[in-house]
Design goal:
The protein is an alpha/beta fold. Helices cover 24% and strands 25% of the residues. It has helices at 2-7, 13-39, 45-66, 73-102, 157-162, 351-359, and strands spanning 143-145, 173-177, 180-183, 186-188, 195-199, 205-209, 226-228, 234-236, 239-242, 254-256, 261-264, 267-269, 275-277, 281-285, 288-291, 293-298, 301-305, 308-311, 322-329, 339-343, 346-349, 364-369, 377-381, 384-385, 407-411. Pfam families: Pectinesterase, PMEI.
Length: 425
């Protein structure tokens, strides 16, 4: 049905983009559901829950695009199909959670509960995620990328990624990217697993693009300069950048759907929607993330440790003032095992932004997050907040949407923006 819409979308760039994006999301979903079903007999309950959570997120992503082009009988049929598929997947995920928490005692199974219900899940079975340690040392490059492509090296990052074997179970495929600015769009597909991008350092090895939602018919998902689907992805010593100009719209520097991905000493530069931590389990260590509107967003289970989070000026009339949200987590179902954790991080502004802020603090308001979806979940632990974080701390999305279902937490943070006395409830 989706393929038929794509085939008959001549002249409608928006519908074409939505259908193309939906096909990729549904393909991801099918793969994750199959993986979840295979994990259960082996006692990998946490893996199964993570993968089913991602599948449900993909269904919502596909549905969310089609609701904006619901103008033909085909799109109406597709929407109905997606509604049913989402409901079935949500029910299956709820059953997975009940089984993981209560085991075979089906009489105890209930609808999924959250922290807002006073429910705090104890450690269950299948907790080993198969990952330990930090970024590997003494990596040997399998391929090299240079600006001139000399001496047997590749000239583009994409060409180097394409050289990786499909479905490598555990062996890393290391792409060493020498210092330089690589203006290209990079995609690491689902079958390219355990790819490692190794650069010469932030600001030295730069992958940059400028795709934006602004009038282009392209989805937020596809604006990413670098988009990763293959599991086990790693990166170090690279700047990922989106330089799309004003007016500010969604323009992603880096998007990850990679399970058990590990990114260290990397920089993410953009404005609105800089880092799309889309789904599954991700770890960011000692990274620098810069933007303004919802610039860390998505529905992954992501940990940001020892990271520097920086608010930058808006691209248009920055002196006028604004409301910025650092995070927009999009957990849409209470059974999804997703959320953002910020551990030992600092949240500040760039030098340019702080100059604006200090001239007129009352018009520049910055929040730790706002709820993109109903069950948005973010916690900040042992982190430092500069004065630019407003006393409210957290920002509503629209009216009272999600205010009774989200969970936002702060623990043992410091700095002038960490005072909890005037925080929202």
């Amino acid at each position: 049905m989706v393929k038929s819409i794509l085939a008959n979308s001549t002249g409608n760039v928006n519908r074409t983009a939505v259908a193309t994006n939906c096909l990729e999301e549904l393909g991801n979903s099918q793969y994750r559901i199959s993986s979840a079903l295979n994990a259960l007999p082996r006692g990998k309950n946490k893996d199964a829950r993570a993968w089913m959570s991602a599948a449900l997120g993909s269904h919502f992503g596909c549905w969310g695009g089609f609701k904006n082009v619901n103008d033909t009988s085909q799109t109406n049929e597709t929407m109905a199909f997606l509604n049913t598929l989402t409901m079935i997947t949500s029910n299956a995920l709820s059953m997975l959670v009940a089984y993981d928490v209560y085991g075979n005692k089906t009489s105890s199974w209930t609808l999924p509960k959250t922290e807002r219900d006073g429910f705090w899940e104890a450690s269950g079975s299948g907790g080993n995620m198969g990952f330990s340690g930090g970024f590997p040392s003494n990596l040997t490059a399998d391929v090299t990328v240079t600006k001139d492509g000399n001496a047997g090296s590749y000239k583009t990052v994409q060409e180097a990624v394409n050289a990786a074997s499909d479905n490598q179970a555990s062996q890393k495929f290391v792409v060493y990217i020498k210092a330089g600015v690589y203006n290209e769009i990079v995609r690491i597909p689902l079958q390219k697993k355990n790819v490692v991008l190794l650069g010469d350092g932030m600001g030295k090895t730069v992958i940059t693009g400028s795709l934006t939602v602004n009038g282009s018919g392209i989805s937020t998902y596809n604006t990413a300069t670098v988009g990763v689907l293959g599991d086990g992805f790693m990166a170090s010593g690279i700047t990922f950048q989106n330089t799309a100009g004003p007016p500010t719209h969604q323009a992603v520097a880096f998007r990850s759907n990679s399970d058990l991905s590990y990114i260290e000493n990397c920089e993410f530069l953009g404005n609105q929607d800089t880092l799309y931590a889309h789904s599954l389990r991700q770890f960011y260590k000692s990274c620098r993330i810069q933007g303004n509107v919802d610039f860390i967003f998505g529905n992954s289970a992501a940990v940001f440790q020892d990271c520097q989070i920086l608010v930058s000026p808006r691209q248009q009339t920055p002196e006028k003032g604004e409301n910025n949200a650092v995070t927009a987590h999009s957990r849409s179902d209470p059974a999804q095992s997703t959320g953002f954790v910020f551990l030992n991080c600092s949240i500040n502004g760039t030098a340019e932004y702080m100059a604006l802020y200090n001239r007129n603090p009352t018009v520049h308001k910055n929040y730790l997050g706002r709820p993109w979806k109903e069950y948005s979940r973010v916690v900040c632990i042992n982190s430092f907040f500069e004065a630019l974080i407003t006393a409210d701390g957290w920002m509503p999305w629209s009216g009272d949407f999600a205010l009774n279902t989200l969970y936002y937490g702060e623990y043992n943070n410091s700095g002038p923006g960490s005072n909890l006395s005037k925080r929202v409830t």
